[in-house]
C-alpha cells in the first residue's frame, strides 16, 4: 500500500472511530468517563491550537490562554438567554441585550473575534523571538486577566460569570476536534508549513529564501488564536459558569505541559500528550484517595498525585527531551522519521 | 545591478566606504579582500539585511534600498551565507522546496482545500527542487536531515537552495571555505555550469585565491572598506596595491 493510501485509510478509521466514540460513548459509558473523554478532546483542541505557533513556528507563546479566555467570555456574553442577560449583566450595551446567539454561531463569532484580537496583538509581538516573545505574550495574558476582572459591565468582574447554556456535548467537541486536526494537518504539511518550520529553524535563512518571517509567524499565531477562541467557547458552554482566573496561569501551565510532553513538532504528539496527562492525573487522583490490597491499606495521600505527575514529567524530559513523539507523527506503520529526532539521536552518539 | 557610493558605518567604524560596482549580465565576478574589508557587509546591504548610511543599490534601474529581504529575493537576488545556514531540522529536499515554493505560491484557502491549482503548484515546486538536487548531486541525500550532511554537501545544498528561488543574481559568500582543493575544483565547475544553464550573474566573495583566479572573469578588491582596484585576474594579481593590502607594506 502506498503511503498516501495508508494515510487516507488511517484518516477514515480515525473519523469512524471518533464518530463511534462521540455518539456511542454516552450510551455505554458512565457520565464520569464521558466527561473525561470530552475534556481530553477539548484540551486536544486547545493544545493543537497552541502547537501551531509554539511547536511548528518556534514562537513560544505563553499567552494563548488569554485567547481562550477571550473566546469563552465573548461566546458567553453572546449566548446567555435574553431574559437572564438583564439580571446577570444589567450594564451591557443595549444591542447586546437585544439578542442571544445559538451555540454554533456564538462559537464561530468567538473564534473570529479572537483571531482579530490576535492580529492586533501579534503584529507588534511577532517581531520578537525566543524568550522575549514568551515574556511579551505572558504580558498579554496578564492584560486579558486584568481587563476581564475590571470590565465588570461585560464580565461581572471577579465574580463568577454564569448563565451560559450547557450545550457542549461530546459530539460537538469531537466535531470541532476533527475540524481542528483537518485544518492544522493541511496547513502544517504544506508549503506554508514548510515556511513555518523554516522560520523556526533560522529566521535569517528563511528571509533569504523569500519567506516573510513576520507574516508567517502572524498567520500561525492568528490561526492558533481562532481555534483557541473556539475552544474557549466550548469550554464556556461546558462549564456554564467560570471566572477570569479559570483562564490564567494554571491552565497555561497545564496546556504547555501537555504540548511539551507530547512533542512540540507533531500534531499527533500534541494529542498523545493530552491523553497521557489527562488519564494519568485521573488515575492518580483516584489512587490518592487511598485503597486496600488484601490486608495492606494505603491511606489517603491528598496531593501525592501532583508529586507523582511532576516526577513523571521530569523523567520524560530527561529521557525524551523532545517529548513522547518528538516531531514524528503517529501514522501506524508509515511513521515518518523526521528531522530533529534523528538529529538529537545523532548528537547523542 | 549596480551600486553607487554605498557607505555603511557601524557606530564610528566604517565597514564600507563609497562602494561602487556595476555587474554585467551573466558574468562571474569575484570580490576579494582581507578579513574586515567589507565583503560581507556588501552582501548584507544588497540583500536588505542591513541598511546603508548612504548610496544607492539598483536592480534593473529600480532602487532596492529599504526593501525587505523577502522582497529583494522575490526581485531575483539570492545569496548563501558564510559557514552555513541550512534549515537544520528539515530534510535536504525540504530545504530546497522551501526556497522553490517562492515562485509557485499557494494561498491559505488553496492549502486547506487542495484543489487542482494547489496540486499543480506543489508539483511544479517539486520538479524545480528535484532538478536542482540532481544538478548538485544531492539526489541520493534528499531524504536526509540537512544538519546531518557532510560539510561539502551542506555547502552545495546551500547553493541549490539559493538557486531554487529563481534568481538573476546569485551572491555566494565564501562558498569554498572548508573545502579541500579537489572539492574546490568541482565547485568552480559547478558554478560555471549554473551560470551557463540558468543565465545568472554570480558574485563570489572568497578568500580562496585558487577559486577566484580560476573562476572569475572580473575581480574587485576591497581593503578596509574601500575599493582598491577592479580588473581581470591578471591585472589584479599584478596590482601593487593588492600586494600591499594582502602582504602589508614592503
Automatic annotation (TrEMBL), chain A:
What membrane topology does the UniProt entry give? Multi-pass membrane protein
**Where, by residue number, does the polypeptide cross the bilayer?**
32-52, 59-82, 102-123, 130-149, 169-189, 218-238, 258-284, 296-319
PANTHER family xrefs = HIGH-AFFINITY BRANCHED-CHAIN AMINO ACID TRANSPORT PROTEIN BRAE, HIGH-AFFINITY BRANCHED-CHAIN AMINO ACID TRANSPORT SYSTEM PERMEASE
**Ranges in a coiled coil:** none
Recorded GO MF terms: branched-chain amino acid transmembrane transporter activity
Name the source organism.
Mesorhizobium ciceri biovar biserrulae (strain HAMBI 2942 / LMG 23838 / WSM1271)
InterPro entries in alphabetical order: ABC_transp_permease, LivM-like
Q: Where in the cell is it found?
A: Cell membrane
Q: Name one GO cellular component term.
A: plasma membrane
Q: What is its main location?
A: membrane
Record carries keyword Transmembrane: yes
* UniProt keywords, alphabetically: Cell membrane, Membrane, Transmembrane, Transmembrane helix
Q: Per its record, how is this protein called by name? A: Inner-membrane translocator
From TrEMBL, chain B:
Q: What is this protein called?
A: ABC transporter related protein
Segment forming the signal sequence: none
Query: Which SMART domains does the record associate with it?
Result: AAA
GO MF terms here are: ATP binding; ATP hydrolysis activity; L-isoleucine transmembrane transporter activity; L-phenylalanine transmembrane transporter activity; L-valine transmembrane transporter activity
State if Nucleotide-binding is listed as a keyword.
yes
Indicate the segments forming the ABC transporter domain, all copies.
Answer: 1-249
A family per Pfam: ABC_tran
Sorted keywords for this record are: ATP-binding, Nucleotide-binding, Transport
The superkingdom of the source organism is Bacteria
- Organism whose genome encodes this protein: Mesorhizobium ciceri biovar biserrulae (strain HAMBI 2942 / LMG 23838 / WSM1271)
Q: Which GO terms describe its biological process?
A: D-alanine transmembrane transport; L-alanine transport; L-isoleucine import across plasma membrane; L-valine import across plasma membrane
Q: Which PANTHER family match?
A: AMINO ACID ABC TRANSPORTER ATP-BINDING PROTEIN (PTHR45772:SF7), CONSERVED COMPONENT OF ABC TRANSPORTER FOR NATURAL AMINO ACIDS-RELATED (PTHR45772)
Question: What are its GO cellular component terms?
Answer: plasma membrane
